[in-house]
From TrEMBL:
GO terms for cellular component: cytosol. This is Glutamine amidotransferase. Gene3D superfamilies: 3.40.50.880. GO terms for molecular function: hydrolase activity, acting on carbon-nitrogen (but not peptide) bonds, in linear amides. PANTHER family: GLUTAMINE AMIDOTRANSFERASE PB2B2.05-RELATED. SUPFAM superfamilies: Class I glutamine amidotransferase-like. It comes from the Bacteria.
Length: 236
């Protein structure tokens, strides 16, 4: 049995992410990574990294300070932004497999020089945040049939949850959008050339909160990430 250690960024509902990634597998250990722990060095213990959801990425990180007017000021954590941008740099230097979820997609798009839509409804799209009663929205997505994501899920379309008010806008260098919502919001990013670097999959939905493990946009995503982490151990 191959033992793997996966670093996971600290944030809201950390335990939910950790439980989903580890699943029932004894061979998977998840460790928290965050500025409050001052433990950047722990990336050297990790075989892969998950970037979780949470606060908005501050618009100064992608060169759009004027977008502050469209953001919720308390919903920032600039120390988290800085820690995780450096964490991504180190993960790429070490060629670790990376899975980004919600904020994780947005932060990594910014890492590669992309920008964000600061508030989806203000930009004239459907509301992708929670419903007024606090429950999750959901919607369909379309998947590029030539993408890594399609190879993982085997599905040209799917159904996912939705709990975000920001999204990727201009795509970062070397990335490509491979899934879209009906109103054109980017739902997944990956490398344009999947062989140009280590495994990288970024999804806007929250697979860790979806109960249907048979949904390929939940179970298959987790399984592929874990397998890529194991494969990385063999090749390093």
């Amino acid at each position: 049995m191959i033992k793997v250690t996966i670093g996971m960024t600290e944030g809201r509902m950390y335990a939910v992410y950790a439980d989903w990634v580890a699943g029932m597998a004894d061979e998977v250990e998840v460790i928290p990574l965050g500025y409050t722990r001052n433990n950047m060095a722990d990336i050297h213990r990790c075989d892969g990294v998950v970037f979780t959801g949470g606060e908005d990425v501050h618009p100064t990180r992608y060169g759009k300070p004027a977008f502050l007017a469209h953001c919720i000021p308390p919903d920032f954590d600039e120390r988290r932004d800085d820690f995780e941008l450096e964490l991504m740099r180190q993960a790429q230097t070490r060629q670790l497999p990376v899975l980004g979820i919600c904020r994780g997609l947005q932060l990594i798009n910014v890492y590669y020089g992309g920008t964000l839509i600061p508030d989806i409804t203000t930009w004239g799209r459907f509301n992708h945040a929670k419903l007024p009663n606090g429950s999750e929205r959901d919607h369909s997505i379309r998947v590029d049939p030539h993408s890594l994501l399609f190879g993982i899920t085997g599905s040209p379309e799917g159904w996912v949850n939705s709990l975000h008010h920001q999204s990727a806008d201009r795509i970062g260098e070397g990335l490509v959008a491979v899934a879209l919502s009906p109103d054109g919001i980017i739902e997944a990013l990956e490398r344009k050339d999947v062989d140009s670097g280590s495994f990288l999959l970024l999804v806007q939905w929250h697979p860790e909160r979806m109960d249907d493990t048979r949904n390929p946009f939940v179970g298959a995503v987790r399984e592929r990430f874990i397998n890529e982490v194991k494969k990385n151990i063999h090749t390093t």
